[in-house]
Amino acid sequence: MDPIIAIIISVSLCLITVFFCYRYVKKTFDDVDYVLDSILAKKTDISLKTMEDSRLSKLGHKALRIAEMNIMDVSQIKHEKEIIQSFISDMSHQMKTPLSSVTMYTDLVLEGRITEDERQEFLYRIKKGTEKLQWMMDSLVKMSRLEVGAIELNPVPAGIKQTISESVSDVYAASVKKNISIETTYFDDIMLLHDRKWTREAIANVLENAIKYSSIGGEVNISIEKLPIYTKINITDHGIGIFSDEWNSVFKRFYRGRNAKGIDGAGLGLYLASLILEKQGGYILVDSRPGQYTTFSMFLQNCKK
Amino acid sequence: MVILKTEALKKYYGKEPNVVKALDGVDLEVQEGEFVAVVGTSGSGKSTLLHMLGGLDKPTDGKVIVGGKDISGMTDEQLTIFRRRNVGFVFQSYNLVPILNVYENIVLPIELDGNTVDQDYVENIIETLGLSEKKNHLPNNLSGGQQQRVAIARALATKPSILLADEPTGNLDTKSSQDVLGVLKMTSTKFHQTIVMITHNEQIAQLADRIIRIEDGKIVTMEGWI
Fold this sequence. Notes:
Shape of chain A: elongated
CATH architecture of the largest domain in chain A: 2-Layer Sandwich
Number of helices of chain B: 7
CATH class of chain B: Alpha Beta
Helix content of chain B: 25-40%
Strand content of chain A: 5-15%
CATH class of the largest domain in chain A: Alpha Beta
Structural class of chain B: alpha/beta
Mean pLDDT of chain A: 85
Largest sheet of chain B: 6 strands, mixed
Distance between the termini of chain B: 12 Å
Order of helices and strands of chain B: EEEHEEHEHHHEHEHEE
Number of helices of chain A: 6
CATH superfamily of the largest domain in chain A: Histidine kinase-like ATPase, C-terminal domain
Strand content of chain B: 25-35%
Structural class of chain A: alpha+beta
Number of strands of chain B: 10
CATH superfamily of chain B: P-loop containing nucleotide triphosphate hydrolases
Oligomer: heterodimer
CATH architecture of chain B: 3-Layer(aba) Sandwich
Shape of chain B: globular
Order of helices and strands of chain A: HHHEHEEHEEHEE
Radius of gyration of chain A: 32 Å
Helix content of chain A: 55-70%
Number of strands of chain A: 7
Number of domains of chain B: 1
CATH topology of the largest domain in chain A: Heat Shock Protein 90
Strand order of the largest sheet of chain A: 2-4-5-7-6
Radius of gyration of chain B: 17 Å
């Protein structure tokens, strides 16, 4: 009798173990299945106990992150669409003014009932308007290419001295026109990670800005300062200045300072400059005291040894 | 996508009639990948706000929703796990473990959660933050700026949903501050990291995509675009 009872007991024990194993495996599979279903249904409110210290909870947490990433991708695309839309409306708004003045003066000249002086004046204004449109078009093309990543910046170790002097030569004509001297504090050339063509453009934009908001006969200073990771290029002017609550905004697309309304501009130069620096792992800061000075500091990465 | 959201968030300290309203109804939304600066004077409630966002403290009333999950009702134990998996913290003090070297400090939170280290990702962070040569150094042999960069690397290593920084340059001189700031900015663009940074300094705040100003426990302005 005894061996039979023993066999029965062991067989039933085996069956019970198998039953519980089956239950456990089934439950785990059901949970995993549930998580995957939730991901497919794009739900992030997975009610698995994701806040426990268990293996299943960790799995649930990771599944949740995957679902979130999916949703993020979709909303990212939506967000980009919105950016493009707002961009187009901003842009058309900016172009309207010079375009309508060109149209108006052209009509007046075509009508012909004007004096020679007026005719000269109107033609001059038409020229100004088209120049502004041309400049805006150029900036917009650059901007859109940079934004969508159609242009990849290629930061390589290169001497910053040459880049700065190229930028200065870009704005030389504008500075001469306003009798503004550009002074550079002496520095030893430093190798910095930057894309020369684009960095030249960024520095020139900031210089142009400094010249535009300085009074005639003013001075613009350039100096270099080395930090552990970055090297900064400071450009200081003594023009109208920027209020501290606008320091963040001046680098936004199409933003114009409160006290810059009387001066011609599109709000693109500084935006483009900050975009260019950001694309190469650098950044730009401003410090200003209205009526006294404005310093833009451009940070570029030092070469890694 | 909104990664972080508060609804009518309140935090009161003390009892009537001496109630201090540190936060008095804050409604806030932060988009995924955004770099937001919260600016306010001392006592404005900005640090209290950060503690609520990171699940370090529980609100008196209102909700904090991180990645679609309401954390205001969680137990302490749940909050601990939530923080470990979702939030990276950078404080004014660096809080590095002095007996561990730089690399060990950085991967510590990953190992605490029992996960394997994503070597490539961690190396990328270390490289980005300019710490490649300091990997085997002990924290005490580093400058303040370097220690803070290690703290940032540690906060990033777990790939958190949000990075919360409370006066990250508060203990640093201007030069180191600008370095640390640049690194934060690079992090937000390169790793598409959502960052909420608390500061009283306009110079530092200007680098953010958006500035939120807080006074007497209330948001006064939200600037910036989109």
